Amino acid sequence: MNTALKLQGIVKRYGKNIALDRLDLVVPRGAVFGLVGSNGAGKTTAMSVSAGLLRHEAGRVSLLDEGPFNPALHAGRVALLPQDARLPPHLRVEQVLRFYGRLQGIPGRLVAGAAEKALAWTNLAGKRRAEVCELSHGMYRRLTIAQAFLGDPEFIMLDEPMSGLDPREQVRIREVILGKEQNQTILISSHRMADIESLCTEVAFIESGRLIRQDAISRITLMHSTVSYIVGAGAPGVLEHVRNLLEQAEWWFEPRASALCVRFPDTMRAEEVNRKVIPVLLQHGLELREVRQGVSLEDEYMKMVESHAPQKR
Amino acid sequence: MNAQACRPPEIEPRNMPGKWARDIFLVACNELADSIRSRRTLMLVFLYAALIVFAGWMMIRFIESISIRMLTELGLSSYEDADALAPVLWKSAEYQRLTRGFLGKDLQESAAGMHPFGWIFGVMAFTLTPILVMWTSAARLAEDVGNRAVRFLAVRTSRLSWCLGKYAGQAAQLLLALLAGGVCMWVLGLLYMPGFSPAASAGAIFRMTLASWIWGLGFLGMAAGVSQITARHHLATAMGTIALVAVYVIHVLSDKITRHDAWKLMDNLFPTGHYRGLWSLEPACLLPSVVIICALSLLYLFAGHLFFSRRDL
After folding, report:
1. Interface residues from chain B to A (CB-CB < 8 Å)
2. Predicted complex ipTM
């Protein structure tokens, strides 16, 4: 096996409420993996169970193919960015990272360098002497991200990493995630589909504590077989005119994204499709705002959630 | 790719011998530093020292009146024969009534010949230390669980190492507070007490500082045990205070009211059943008390940990 995380039939209850209902999840090593679900779907609980913070009633957890979280085995190799946890308010920024670094097994002679690297990544180098309680919300958030990347752990779990960050810092953190080491695995839980779509190679949708679907983003968004034309008003009317443009193609309109979508056979390429379709759309006076390869992850997620809604009731 | 190959080179090897001890030391140092930086803890230590100084001042005034009369009767000058003060005072019926009132008959025998500053400091420290411990330490672990700060640490070290580290840090903090109180008391005597013997009083105060520290450790274990069973720090403080009152009620019942064996047996499960030995200069009396109180302290801590090790963080 070569997995960073494997959850099998995990059950977790809070009193009478069931948070995880036989959840299965496999996060392959080296992936940037997205965990998507509505509020209360169980994303944070799944991460907390994986990190050994929460006890589960049933099922099996395997981290880095070495069984459930065990500090003797996993300290320094597994890191977590928890959602609402508080850092020690009176420690200085660099003291926090040095303390955590030493505790996770970075030798004393290297810990200062590791802390500096994490501070540079998160643009906090100028605040190294500041006390945690003096940081703004965004800086505080970046420090929590810095601690997760401290010492380059093998498996990093980030719970809503972009929340509270300004756009510039979001870009910076995105770059940090995309520039990860090849053998590092990052699990990201987020409500921001754009982040998941741009960062992750694989995604799992969970609802009501259960896995709805896990697949490569490219497969979910039909990246290699679909083109979406984001258009202004009048698109449904044009559908009739484009329907016969391509043989064996499937056309439909996505009202949520205002997108005219076409799924084409394997024998064609997206460039060919565009060459034929775009002139027709413009000819009919449509306002073409964006051409996107594949469909939007958000739409696919919404469809999946809606199709699973009756089961919840 | 296996786990060993994945681990960044700067992480210390897993299952490193003595890692648990190093983790306890790191957490303890951080706890002590955080306590010193925390204004709340400093305030409580300041209050503790102020109470000791106030009580010491009152006692000085009272003893001064006795000692001057005694020394005058014996034709001695208090300044010339400072070291003679203690034995002389112990011969005074008035002084003996005073010490019996504060120490009780048993302790009066143990403290016979002790420099007045020793037993005054001992009485104050033995009275205030359990309260100080419950008010400052009972909330410390619960607070970190409540605000989820523990989540940053629980992926880096074992829960037991964290608890023991917090306990050790609190123990160091307690020792510092007691030493600070002792120094204040000593300075007070130096400045205001006629016939003050710096060396003898320093020795007596230091001995009682150590004795009251051991005494405090008993309650610190209790506070740490209580603190592990709730995530609400106010509740932890309340529970600690209730436990303290219950311990004293049991002690008073067993010692002063019933003298029934069952109560005596129950009293022996708490530090109150073993404090007399801490006043003794005889190793045969002193050492068993030290060992039993330290063992009880760890017993309370581990009893709380039985719950903590299985709880959600």
Report:
1. 1, 3, 5-8, 10-12, 14-16, 19, 23, 26-27, 30, 33-34, 37-38, 147-158, 161, 310-313
2. 0.83
